[in-house]
C-alpha cells in the first residue's frame, strides 16, 4: 500500500462522520424528540429542555463527558450507564450524540448485532472502534471567491454544446473566466445569479453560494426570510485557503484494503480487513500528526444491551481500551446480577469484574409521575397527534406508572387512531380513547397474567415431550 493511495482516499472521501440518525424524513422514532442533553453553559441540567426530562445527575455526568471530548481530554475510557428499563439510557446517549455535533464521530451499536454479521466478533468490534475515531486532515486548496457581476451562457444551435463566461469581482479587482459545460451546470444547479457571493473549489469544481452581496440588498422589494446577506470579499479573487476534512479511521481502512475500496463504503460490503493494512495506516496517520497535517479526534462508541456480549468480546474490549488509538466507549445495561454470556459465572450487570473495574458507572433511576407526564406531553407534540385532554394525559401517566413508559408512549398513537376513527368532536383524544386502546392492547404484566390463567390451553415443553414419546412411525406396506 503506497502512501499516495492513502492520501487519495482521504481527499476523495470528503467530510464524513459516523452519526446515528433518529429521523428519516418525517419518520418519528422513539427518540426523535431528543435535541441534546438539556444543559446550560455551566453544565447544570434543566428540569426539561431539548426533549430531556429528569435524570439530572446522569445528564450532568454526560455533560462533563461531552466537554472533555470536545477538549480532546478523554479517550480510551469506558463508561457504563446502568439502570432499570425505560429510564432514559439510550436517550442520554443520543443526547450526547446531538451535543457533540457533526465533527465528532459517534457510532451506535447493539450488542446482538455482532452475532449476525458475516465476520468475526472481534473484527466487527474493531471496525466499530475505528469508525469512532476521526482524523481531521488539513490541506491547502486553491479557491475562487467573489461577487458575481455577470453570467453569459452561449448554447450551440443543436443544443449539444454549452459554454459561457463568468464575470466575478472583489473590492479590489474584477476578472472574467471562461466556463465549460460542467461549470455551467454547477452554477445552474446552485441557481447563481448576478449579485451572489460564491466560492469555487478549483480542484473539484464544486460551487458554493455564500449569500447575497449587501450592495444588492435593495434590488428587490421583497425577499425570502432565508436570504443571507454577506460582504463582498476583499483582496485577490483566486487565493489559497486552508480546509479540513474529517474522516474516520475505518473509512481509510476500507479505501486502502482493496482496489475499489471507495465504492465499498457505499455498498457496505467492507468484509474483514487485514491487520497489516491497519498497522500501515496507523503509521501513516502518526507521521501526519508529527508533520502537523492531521489531528486525531477521539469519538464515542455506544454499545446498547452490552450484557448480550460474551466473554470473548469482553476480553477483546479490555485489551482494545488500552490501545493508543481508542475512542470513548459508552455501554448501557438494564441487568442486575446475571450470568456473563458464555460462562457459568454471575456478575453485576452481566459484565466481568475486571472490565467493571475499568469503568465509570452512571446510574439512572425510574421517572416520577410528573416526569412521565412531561415526557408523554413532549411525545404528543412530536408525533403530531390530535390534542390530548388533560384527563386523558393523566390516565396515560397512570398507565406509565403501573405498566411501563414505553407502553404508554405506544398508546399515544393507538389512542389517536381511535379518536380519528370515531371522528371525535372536538378533535381531541379523550379518556375513552385511552381506555379503548388499553383494552385492545395488552402490556407485559397483563399478557403474563393471561398466559398463567389459561396455561392449559397453551403448548409448553411438557406437551412437546409427550408428543415425541407418543409418536409412532406409520407403516407403509
Report on the structure:
The chain has 477 residues and is α/β, with parallel strands linked by helices. 38% of the residues lie in helices and 23% in strands. The protein has helices at residues 3-13, 56-70, 89-100, 121-131, 181-189, 249-257, 261-267, 275-291, 311-320, 353-356, 369-382, 390-402, 405-421, 431-440, 444-453, 461-470, and strands at residues 48-49, 52-53, 78-82, 106-110, 133-155, 162-169, 174-179, 196-201, 207-213, 229-230, 238-248, 294-298, 300-304, 328-333, 337-339, 346-348, 359-363, 387-388, 428-429. The strands form five sheets. Strands 5, 6, 7, 8, 9, 10, 11 and 12 form an eight-stranded mixed sheet that branches. The chain has a five-stranded parallel sheet with strand order 4-13-14-3-17, sandwiched between helices. It is globular, with a radius of gyration of 29 Å. Residues 1-25 have low confidence and may be disordered.
Radius of gyration: 29 Å
Proportion of β residues? 15-25%
Global mean pLDDT: 81
Q: Total number of β-strand segments?
A: 19
What percent of residues adopt helix (DSSP H or I)? 25-40%
Overall outline: globular
What structural category do the secondary elements indicate?
Answer: alpha/beta
Q: Distance between the terminal alpha carbons, to the nearest Å?
A: 70 Å
